[in-house]
């Protein structure tokens, strides 16, 4: 049984009298313990796919399940940790207070949050800043705090929307190392990104979304077959989709 499954999911956005198709018959699955990357340019539908999975928005048709349960059922979403593309925090709270809030909202005791939070803050090099108000954090620090908040309750399934956004090279290295460790521990990771190098380095399988359609779904090795690098492979998939639409 897959940890994540989309079946023939359609989604349109309405602006006035106009409709725009964002996802067209999206069908894919993510196995338990797999690191899956959803790749595509800005506006391709990656964030929409994640919001649909988390039941933040509803599809026009099709179904989504998490470990065999409909994603609309709250128990299905309990094993999930989520990092949005632009995490938002209460600016007057400190980093520690933010983790306590998120951990207790997930049913953890303060002692558990402090133990787990201390580990995550150290790994993400936020220990010294953790007592400061979040409003003083840089973009990269806020992004790393968002990842710590997503992981504080030790979820089995991690949903990451552009997790490398706003990170400098050191921050990207810290996050990539942590994600690699989580993969080794058997966590299921579903990550959207437009950064090809991150997909190539971290993911077992990849899906490419372009102009509302899932144009490729398979291993990174399969995607790169016959191409010099991942960029060439990605552009070939995009070109094929453009030819279909012509």
From TrEMBL:
Keyword Transport in record = yes
Give the SMART domains listed for this entry. AAA
> Per its UniProt record, what InterPro entries does this chain match?
AAA+_ATPase (IPR003593), ABC_transporter-like_ATP-bd (IPR003439), ABC_transporter-like_CS (IPR017871), ABC_Transporter_VariousFunc (IPR051782), P-loop_NTPase (IPR027417)
Report the protein name in the record: ABC transporter domain-containing protein
User: Listed GO molecular functions?
Assistant: ATP binding; ATP hydrolysis activity
Q: Which keywords belong to this entry?
A: ATP-binding, Nucleotide-binding, Transport
Domain named ABC transporter: residues: 4-236
Top-level taxon: Bacteria
**Is-annotated flag, keyword ATP-binding?**
yes
Q: Which organism is it from?
A: Desulfobulbus oralis
